[in-house]
Amino acid sequence: MGMAQLGNQLYTGEKSFDFVGRRKLWYLVAVLLIAVSALLLVKPGLTFGIEFEGGSQFSVSSPADGPRITDEAPAREAVATVLPDVTPEVTKLGTDAIRVQTSTVTTDQLDEIRTALASAYDVSPDLITSSSIGPSWGADVTDKAITALVVFFVLVSLVMGLYFRTWTMALASLLALVHDLVITAGVYAVVGFEVTPASVIGFLTILGYSLYDTVVVFDKVRENTADAFTKRDRTFAEAANLAVNQTVVRSVNTTVVALLPVAAILFIGDLLLGAGTLRDISLALFVGMLVGAYSSIFVATPLLVDLRRRDGRVKDLAHDVDERPATRGPVTEPSSA
Length: 337
Description:
Elements: H1 3-12, H2 23-45, E1 47-48, H3 50-53, E2 55-61, H4 73-82, E3 89-92, E4 97-102, H5 107-121, E5 128-133, H6 135-164, H7 167-191, E6 194-195, H8 197-231, H9 236-273, H10 276-307, H11 312-322
Parallel strand pairs: 1-6
Antiparallel strand pairs: 2-4, 2-5, 3-4
Helix pairs in contact: 1-9, 2-7, 2-10, 4-5, 6-7, 6-8, 7-8, 7-10, 8-9, 8-10, 9-10
């Protein structure tokens, strides 16, 4: 059976997966993932780049006509000659360069470390770039990153509330977004990738992607539930579950297509090119898209159903449907094809 045929059967109700009915299982999976991610955020914790914590950074590139620079030991020894009490963080950049990060140093120490690195690798000082970021500037970047996330969530709340005209959909969307953000951050902690401004951009991007996916599902939920309130032929939960079935194939297809180029950027950029910026943003996108697709299908709509359980209209609808079991037909809907 092809995806197109399956999608049509799910849309019409000929086939149906009980996403909403099994919500306790999805909640358990979500809670476990969030708990593990939270523990990882405590230990080992996130590794912040110098843009957030401040520090000094040196990049040593291989000469055009010389051997490739890949050995990290000379860099540590060179830094030790200037800063004996500092353990630098040395990482490879692709196959012909390395990056050295230390705490913030003075201008004189910056020049001394550049000279020591040039001597250790027998290259011209022109092939060594350096930069320093003070702790106050790093703290300012951190504040702006947090502000960006807070503003994003506030705007999401307002837009979702105004668009769907119900606080339950806005709250369910926000909880799904928090789920995505925490798990993505937990993956960053366990793999040890640095959190940089590029990572923050990636976080905001995947939150927007996840929100878009959730809005598509909720739009169908709103359409189906409005029809259910009119026809009184299915409960709110059944109408919501039908909406997830009608959009699940689209969500999976969209996610797979979006993940292919991101995976290429992540693995080629990291393993072959060693491009730190590409790696930072692509990891956030890759993990976030996966988690966002999961949350839009398995978390957001079940949460919405639970949030609406105490609603009087929802209770009355369930009562009316239960009172008419003999006339209740299969949960189907005409194909739009």
